[in-house]
Amino acid sequence: MKYLVTGAAGFIGFFVVQRLVAQGHNVIGIDNLNDYYDVNLKLARLAELKPLAGFTFMQLDLADREGIAALFESQQFDRVIHLAAQAGVRYSLDNPLAYADSNLVGHLTILEGCRNTQVKHLVYASSSSVYGLNTKTPFSTSDSVDHPISLYAASKKANELMSHTYSHLYQVPTTGLRFFTVYGPWGRPDMALFKFTKAILAGEAIDIYNNGKLSRDFTYIDDIVEGVMRIQNVIPQGKGVDAQGNAWTPETGSPANSSAPYAVYNIGNGNPVKLMDFITALEAALGVEAKKNFMPMQPGDVYQTYADTQGLETATGHTPAVGVKEGVARFVEWYKAFYG
Hints:
CATH topology: Rossmann fold
Distance between the termini: 39 Å
Strand content: 15-25%
Number of domains: 1
Strand order of the largest sheet: 3-2-1-4-5-6-11
CATH architecture: 3-Layer(aba) Sandwich
CATH superfamily: NAD(P)-binding Rossmann-like Domain
Largest sheet: 7 strands, parallel
Number of strands: 13
Mean pLDDT: 94
Number of helices: 11
């Protein structure tokens, strides 16, 4: 098939492109190569991808309405895996307008392209941050997500709402994936593991928020990509009736599905890890004890993330396999090789 992967020079997009090409698909990858983080890392990922048979890269911004429309019209994609976005909870506190073009206008241009060219399935990145003020754990896709605490989270909730609208109005099959703290080789420099590793090796202190009393559902990149690859073959059909044979309604059905061809899944490890245990695993992998600077809680942060992954497991049979000690060690091995 022919695929569009947005954010192809990004962390998850880089690995998804590799998997699709390995399966024999034709992939057009787009990315605007912005400088939110080190462009050289994005270019290094692209350097790995460009020699692959079946892959073509185009530098294109999601907010370029005419450019995106022309791309869809000329290529007639079978499926779209939409991973590009302005990322970062903390960055959204200081630069809120950066999220309007990429995450709102950009998502709409992708939806319009899918509608106008009858794309058979749109899989897009949502985020665990949509759970906001929720305290019931594990976080379930059947829970309300009406109280985000960062603009980034609000933009991802908006993506889910926009997608449902297009699924309902135009029968565009859409699947949203709420990613939980993805880490691993080729990861993003703005994420904790990357920042901690760089600081520790430089002999600098690491900033630990809420005095380390945080936990995250750290999910290794291979488990994320496996979930993406499997779920893109599970095309939502719409829920005409529920499990008891009753007509699906918003009042009685789960927010994770609909009478429209729409679905949302958590994609995480399902096993939250204390931040201090994560740091201990990193110290062991580096063979260096970190200098620690304990800090108060940051605005926009949540105390815990914990994914209920039953929906994805039921739909795909995929269960995450890589634990934190192994995953962190693999990251450190890559980091040392890449940065010397």
